Amino acid sequence: MSTTSPPSSPLHTTHLLRRATINRLFAIIYALCIITLIHRHITNIHHSTTVIFLIADLVLAFMWTTTTSFRLYPTRRKVFPEKLDKFLEKKDYPAVDIFICTADPYKEPPMNVVNTALSLMAYDYPPEKISVFVSDDGGSELTLFAFFEAAKFAKIWLPFCRENNVVDRCPEVFFRSCHAAFSDGANIKAMYEKMKMKVESVVDRGSICAEYITTDEERKAFDKWDKGFTRHHHPTVIQVLIESEQEKDMNGHSMPNLIYVSREKNKAYPHNFKAGALNTLLRVSAVMTNAPIVLTQDCDMYSNDPKTLQRMLCFYADQSIRHNLGYIQFPQRFQGINKADIYGSEYKRLYVINPGGMDGLKGPCYVGSGCFFVRRVFFGGPSSPELPEAHRLWPDHVVKVSIRNNQVLDLAHEVAVSNYEENSTWGSKMGFRYGSLSEDFFTGLHQHCRGWKSIFFHPRRPAFLGDLPITLYDALNQNRRWCIGLLEVVFSKYNPLTFGSLFMGPLMGLAYAHNAFWPIWSIPIITYSFVPQLALLNGTQVFPEVTNSWFILYAFLFMGANVQDCFDFMSARGTFQQWWNDQRIWFMRGLSSYLFGFIEFSIKHLGIASKGFHVTSKVVDDEQSKRYNNGVFEFGVPSPMFVPLATVAIVNFVAFVVGILQILNGGNINGLFGQMFISCFGVLNSWPIYEAMLWRTDKGRMPRVISVISALLSLVLCMLALFVPNA
Ligand SMILES: O=c1ccn([C@@H]2O[C@H](COP(=O)(O)OP(=O)(O)O[C@H]3O[C@H](CO)[C@@H](O)[C@H](O)[C@H]3O)[C@@H](O)[C@H]2O)c(=O)[nH]1
Ligand SMILES: [Mn+2]
């Protein structure tokens, strides 16, 4: 592994953060301490609890090793888009195909999807070079209707943004805040509101009233939704809403292409969820525009910065890194996070800190949204292309005809049929990877293994902002789905540790393994949430006495990990409170989503049942959102995932109280200190759970049934601990 920075380019620079040296030194010390601890466990293996702690600590040690791979080469990049003119004339800017995925009009309101699309169409970039493809896996006429309306509004919105140099180009965001300062702002807002009302009324009704369908084109399009049309079984719908060459905005400027695509669905063929949708878009766009750059975007991730494409070009235009540059990933950032980020929804480590660490190696993972791919990356390695059979799908094929041309449209329909991929290498060698619910992680891994590199770029003003789950249930469910997807990668041929290390080098292998092995966090988390506490009830000492010199080792390992973690977190512009909540949600995930993800993965692979891709809801209930904004945990639904959380809360409380009583009665405070400390930590972390179980009365409180089950479970556990003979 070389430490020299890549040749500098006038368009962008890279530098290794100074903390790299400290991190490396600290890693050596910490590693020695871990080895000492494991050695101690092995020599004490005859104690009954030691085996459990040995396993837990081995997992912690493994996860620490994987985390260290992010800390050895932490990197930060800068770009200089103002110099772009010297290297690239506007007319030579590459074309960009933007893919927006949506899957359910009731969980992903069409008005939000429209906002995302409008913000992206309004990039400060030659409009004729932008094509926006909307993939609708919900197969919903409501979404198509919203886009017919959006196409009309775009003719007013895009010139307005351009002429006034608007920064917030997502209409909803713009009109929520600063429109009053612009001449005509009020007028345009009125038009926007009218469109919004129209679309929302259609969504509320669930159908489009006849008077809203005004042109033959629209009528013809909606006729496809006949009686036999369901979201799981329907023909392909491809609707060109704006054709760049034909349509002009109200000031006579060109517009980007806007195309609605709902691929054919047929229950006889697997559709492979989002990866399947993206592969269809890869083909449809190849036939229609075939831009060399592809941006994938979730429907809730709007563009927050009109200059993002220029920033991306600073890398793309650099010939010296071009030959194996696969993609440029911008971090996923979110709007509307509450100040304390109670559910750790920001995923600062996943989206910001770790990618910065991988950027010093071969580049960050792909995270599903905000990623600019070089189209070639989907077809083989940098110097070993594997091209699709049809020449018209090749990444270098130049499309010369109009996107409304009948032949083009016929072909586009042909490549969107449900059995197109039968007996092909789509999803296994070409395009986005199938076989994991975390298709993004799997796809990026595969590309890195083939020799592609990637770049992480984190601008100060977020390039994209998305929605996040605002209930604990949604947040844990999302995490659980990821875990299933990650385990699918671990148990595939592409295990990051074995296959990955071989093809990407050991540090990249470890970095990928860090995410892939997320679910095994459950083992130490469950151990440390129950065993020291139950041992305390039992009067068994499991950690060294405070006065014993071994205690220092424990204290150092605990504090060292937490302080370094907190430092990483706060240097990525987090607050202490956010860090605290982040470590708490990590515990909660270990007890619920990581564990349940693992269980569901196992069940799925025994062939019993599978829920598939459960789309995260982006709809908010007013009361819930009020509670979220006040930083109050939302339980509400009786989910089995809450049982371990509540059980841990009760057990830690009981252990803490009993511990205090023991000490008051002259117990051995020296010996029990470690266990008291951990129980106290557990109690502090469980505070929102006590609130939700005991004195909250709102709808977000812990459902009675969960409290009762957990209390019974805790009772059984505590009884066992109290009455099993002292070990
Ligand atoms: O069958 C499907 C299912 C989902 N989607 C789309 O996939 C996107 C992501 O789904 P969402 O429910 O929002 O998942 P999140 O957990 O919020 O998304 C994260 O995790 C996913 C992988 O699990 C990645 O694909 C995403 O980019 C990443 O943001 C959305 O735009 C959906 O419309 C489809 O197009 N087809
Ligand atoms: Mn999402």
From TrEMBL:
Where's the active site on this chain?
137, 440
A single GO molecular-function term is: cellulose synthase (UDP-forming) activity
Cellular component (GO) terms are: endomembrane system; membrane
Gene3D superfamilies given in the database record = Spore Coat Polysaccharide Biosynthesis Protein SpsA, Chain A
Please name the GO terms of the biological process aspect recorded for this protein, alphabetically: cell wall organization; cellulose biosynthetic process
Major location category of this protein: membrane
Write out the residues that bind Mn(2+). Answer: 274, 298
**Cellular localisation:** Endomembrane system
Residues recorded as binding UDP-alpha-D-glucose, renumbered to this chain, are 107-108, 137
Kindly give the membrane topology term recorded for this protein.
Multi-pass membrane protein
Where do transmembrane segments lie in this chain? 21-39, 51-73, 510-531, 551-570, 641-664, 671-690, 702-724
Q: Does the keyword Glycosyltransferase apply?
A: yes
Write the record's keywords in alphabetical order, separated by commas. Answer: Cell wall biogenesis/degradation, Glycosyltransferase, Membrane, Transferase, Transmembrane, Transmembrane helix
Q: Does the keyword Transcription regulation apply?
A: no
Pfam families linked: Cellulose_synt (PF03552)
State the name under which the record lists this protein.
Cellulose synthase-like protein G3
